[in-house]
Predict the structure.
Amino acid sequence: MDLIVAYGGERAYKGEFQHMAAIGWTRSEATIDYLCGGSLITWRFVLTAAHCSQDHNILPPDTVRLGDTDLASTDDDESAQQIPIARFIKHPQYRESRRYYDIAVVELEKNVIPNSAICVACVWREPEAPEDLIDAVGFGALGFGKELSSTLQKVQLHALDATICAERIPTNRRQMPEGLRDDQLCARSETMDTCEGDSCVVSFGTPCTDGSTGVYTRVSSYLDWIEKEVNQSLSYEVCTGVNVCDRKLNPSISATIEPKWTNSRVGLLWKETETDIYQCGGSLIDYQFVITSSDCVTSNKGPPTYVASSSNSDRAAIEEVFVHPRFIKGQPYFDIAIIKLRKYANLDEMYPACLWSEERHDDWRQFNLLAGASVPQMRSYVEEFNISVKSFVQYYVHGKDCSVGENVAHNDLKCISNDPTLVPGLCQ
């Protein structure tokens, strides 16, 4: 089977793109033509392009298939779901004679049931495309003028500057009187592109050949309209709170609350009865001292009064707080403080961390560093999400030679980086 696809891409497999939907037209003798793709964004709605509202015979689509990466075989049919279309909702300003507002949502007749091959996608909410390569997925044509592929294909594209894009794609003034707009995204690759029938945001572009360019609808420009139509928040917190799917794990993140290594992290508490230990954190560096951020201990709540290693562990009372004398509220420099405890009563669970010293441990930038972040706790899908509960995760970062902050003598800031893309705004 030929797997060189859409144009210069490769075959995608079960569970790799769990949101992918094929939009079809039922023909005579129960055959179905899948001419468009889409993304499952809630258990009831699929996001697609408005131009997919009809085929060349002006007929609307009537069915959606999910969880199937080979439409011509029965290889993964046990995970597939075929659901009739209840409504095809085009953006109200879309016109077939124009290449603007090319976005739509498809309402299904019943809810999708999540499984190992099917799950909702998190909608990208940022105004700009990610800096990394963009995955484009679909059952697109294998090349210009060729038939659609029966197997799910993936290609990687780079976002392209709008000025360069306008030079590469000749625009028809009748179809695009405003030229390329801010609600459109241009993307290209030297050896691959998406073709007719591909993923949900493809609008138009040059033929599927080496170095071809595609124009896509920028979904973030239409979030208000999409959320109104699906009657649900598509925030990152809600999306990542869906924990009924076997999502592909980010290998750089350990999402276990109980670490496998010696635990030296404590949470700062302002009241003894509080249970949220992820408001601010610190590291035990001695059995009576914790190192933390000056910003944490000088908030409008005043200094913290206790530290704890978990929400239900013993509380250690704080005796005194020492803020760095050169720290200025609102400035990033000298953002360090020492907390002195009366005593630490939870020694079975905690052990002091050793402060890094280049003389003893070499250059910190040569090693993977474990960092912590507070994230909304993932939980099973319910009608409403409780996103106030947080959990603590660890992930690996790397030392980096770079400048950050002002170029001043007292700049004590260092750079770290994490290569895999994280959900924007989720970690705190």
Observations:
- The chain has a mean pLDDT of 80.
